[in-house]
Amino acid sequence: MNLVFLMDYSGILICDIIIITIPILMYLFPKRDINFFIGYRTPRSMKNQKTWDFSQRFYFKKWLMVIPLVIIFQFIMIGILEFKNYDLIESLSMGIFLIYSIILIFITERRLIKLKE
């Protein structure tokens, strides 16, 4: 690895660090009190303490599962395919996180509905 590669790849690394750190912190140190600012916040998750606690643990635990997939995607694009457009790789990685987050909201809401039953 040379310095030019690290400078080109720095944007992806910074995004990866942020995307990895936030869910790990939210999973390990979930916000205990229902609030409108931090955590997984939907009307159903904020209904009572039981749904709040469940949704915080469930959402961020499942969110951690996408991180290895995105890192593998980045490794394949950069290491194996030798794709040099790092901005596009960074954008695609963020897109994967966004799409997964939206899908995970629907999954979490379905689980909250089952929890109520």
Summarize the structure.
The chain is mostly helical. The chain has one domain.
Distance, first to last CA: 54 Å
SSE string, helices as H and strands as E: HHHH
Radius of gyration: 17 Å
| Alpha-beta classification | mainly alpha
**What is the residue-mean pLDDT, rounded to a whole number?**
86
> What share of the residues lie within helices?
over 70%
Most strands sheet: none
How many strand elements? 0
Number of domains: 1
The total of helices stands at 4
* Shape label: elongated
Low-confidence stretches: none
Strand content: under 5%
What labels would you give this structure?
4 helices, elongated, mainly alpha
Question: What can you tell me about this protein's structure?
Answer:
The protein is built from four helices and no strands. It is mostly helical. The protein has one domain. α1 runs antiparallel to α2, α1 (3-28) packs parallel to α4 and α2 runs antiparallel to α4. The longest helix has 31 residues, at 86-116.
